[in-house]
Amino acid sequence: MAPNSSPNGNTEMSKGESKAVPDRAKLTLEIGEAPETRSFRTSLPQVLATMAQSMLLLSLGMMVFSSTVIIGALKNAPTGLSLTDYEASWLAGVLLIVQPTGSVLSGFIQNTLGRKKCMLMVNLPQLLGWMLVYHAQSVPMLFVASALMGFSIGFMEAPTFSYVGEISQAHLRGMLASFTSVYISVGLLIMCLLKSFTDWRTAAAISSAVPVITFIAILQVPESPVWLLTKGRREEARASLAWLRGWVKQEVVLKEFRGMEAHAEASKLNSPITTPITPPTLAYSPVPTNEGGLVVEDYKPTFSEKMKDLVRPEMLKPLGLVVCYFGFLHCGALNGCRPYLVHVFTKLGVPLDPFVGTVFAASSQILGSFVCMGSVRKLGKRGLSLISITACSLITLCLGVYAFLRETRQLDLGIFPLVLFSLLFFCTNVGIGVIPWTLLAEVFPARGRGVGGGIAAATYYLWYFIVSKTFLELDSYLGLYGVFFLYSALGFCGLLFLSIYLPETEGKKLEDIEKFFVPKSRRTES
């Protein structure tokens, strides 16, 4: 039976649950007719929602530094609970090893439960982790606490960055995503201050209040309207968008909602499943067509079919981009040496108080994040990435030259290496330390954003584990200057990679970014 046209441009079947593909021009028109309203009122709720979910990243900074606090207090302690050198080395390692599990798991779960529920759920293992630290009477309890914290760190990142990307307008997305990185450094500073004024158990007890406050804060914000639309919950999605655009009536956001709805509908219609009435040419097409009266079924794919969906170019290309970006970030930013900064500064002859060093590092990162927030709209994410990785690679090269001259000619410039490291931390957060996390919310297609973001976040920690675990071995084989030269060279390789493959996403709508990764042959067809 031939489909009959409806007034809104869609075609309807007289029987069955299948529906005809909407007209391409109609969908394109709907997506394009949602001009952004820029005002304080529309921006404020987006900022407040970002601040609420960023409390999770405050916890992240506190949990990452908690191992340093615990190890500093318990390593080879003469009385009470004590950690051997071997146990101390693995306490922080457990935090890194468990994180990829949480990242991958959250990638799948958030597509089912939503961004908000995942952000609420992750507070439970955080609270349990802090409570275990406070009540710890044995080393295994500390390891379980570290594992819970590591899992929660991995679990939170994909939904938090997906949420920011989906609730914010294009002109605010880069700034808000950059703003979240400030919370991580602030969390680190808070733990540093707690370490200075309290003992490690009291610090854990105080820290346990943060997940409770975070849970309450996230309860106040709406679910991502993009996710709600993918689940067919139109009324909730429209109410969410009205809240996020200034607590306005739903009629005010109708145009933007129609554009968002059209894109979500297109994503549903782009079924990855080939059936007699869903030919392969429709799979992941950016805009469906109605040529030949093709029809798409309301079909729920199986688990194996979902796995096949993950290896399509629209998923693999952005995934490869972000994974490589993370790898070059760890090299250019010298992240592998951060757990061993005291060792590095000793070899470079820098008189360093651990508290002062931590304050310098965190302050430099916070300042860099603010510079990123203020300049991302003008320079773009691509521009900031190229500037940042160039600066980081040059600073790492300078550190290599200094380490070489110190070893061969006994050069001693006092705190000069500390200045270089502070500049390195600053330049890292200006671009490459922040931008790849914002890409998690932008470069993946709507249907695969949760899974893609989770897998990509997991690779961040795998890279981090690799570079940190191999740093001392490389130091013994190549010397400290050799390690710096190696990572500087890899940083410049990253500059070449990003200059070729990194697109500019700043100020662009998510559907436009998604089209960039569609193969050219299908872009031409669409």
Automatic annotation (TrEMBL):
Domain of life: Eukaryota
Alphabetical UniProt keywords: Membrane, Transmembrane, Transmembrane helix
Region (Disordered): 1-22
Coiled-coil region list: none
Annotated compartments: Membrane
Transmembrane regions listed in the UniProt entry: 47-70, 90-109, 176-197, 316-335, 355-376, 383-403, 415-439, 451-472, 478-502
InterPro entries registered for this protein in UniProt: MFS_dom, MFS_sugar_transport-like, MFS_trans_sf, MFS_Trehalose_Transporter, Sugar_transporter_CS
GO cellular component: membrane
Keyword Metal-binding: no
Composition skew (Polar residues), residue ranges: 1-13
Pfam family for this entry, one: Sugar_tr
Annotated membrane topology: Multi-pass membrane protein
MF-aspect GO terms: transmembrane transporter activity
Start and end residues of each Major facilitator superfamily (MFS) profile domain: 47-506
Main localization category: membrane
PANTHER family: MAJOR FACILITATOR SUPERFAMILY (MFS) PROFILE DOMAIN-CONTAINING PROTEIN (PTHR48021:SF39), PTHR48021
Protein name (Swiss-Prot/TrEMBL): Major facilitator superfamily (MFS) profile domain-containing protein
Species of the source: Cimex lectularius (Bed bug)
